[in-house]
Amino acid sequence: MTEPDEAPPPPLCELAVDAGFAAAFDLDALIETWDAADLEALQSHLDAHAAASEGEDEHNLCVLLAAVTTFHFRPDNATEPYGPMLVMGERRSAIPADFSDQQLALFLELADRIRRLDLRARLADMVWVEKRKALRPFLRRSGELALNSFLALAAQELDAGRLHGFWKAFERATRLAVLLKSGTPEQLASLCACAVPMMNEQNKPGLLHRLLKLAQDWELMSGADIREAALASAEKCDGDRNWHAAVEMTLFAGTTHDKGEKAQADALRLRAAGIFERAAEYVAAGSALQAAHFMERAIEIYRRVAGTKDQRDRCHRRLLEFQNAINGEMSSRSYPIDLRELIEAARQAVSGKDFFDALWELLTCARSPSVAELRQRVRENAQEFPLSQMFSGTVLDRDGKPVSRFSGVDEDADDAQSGIRHKMIELANLQHHICAHGSLKPAIQVIAAEHQIMAHRFETLIVHAPFVPEGREHVFCVAFQRMFEGKLMEAIHLLLPQVENAIRHVLKQHGVVTSKVKQDMTQEDLNLNEMLFGSTGAETEKIFGADLLFDLQSILVDRSGPNLRNTIAHGKAELGDMYSHDALYFCWMILRLCCLPLAQHWNVLAHLDETGELPASQADDLPD
Question: Which of 49, 121, 248, 500 could crosslink 528 through cysteines, CB 3.0-4.6 Å?
Answer without folding.
Answer: 500
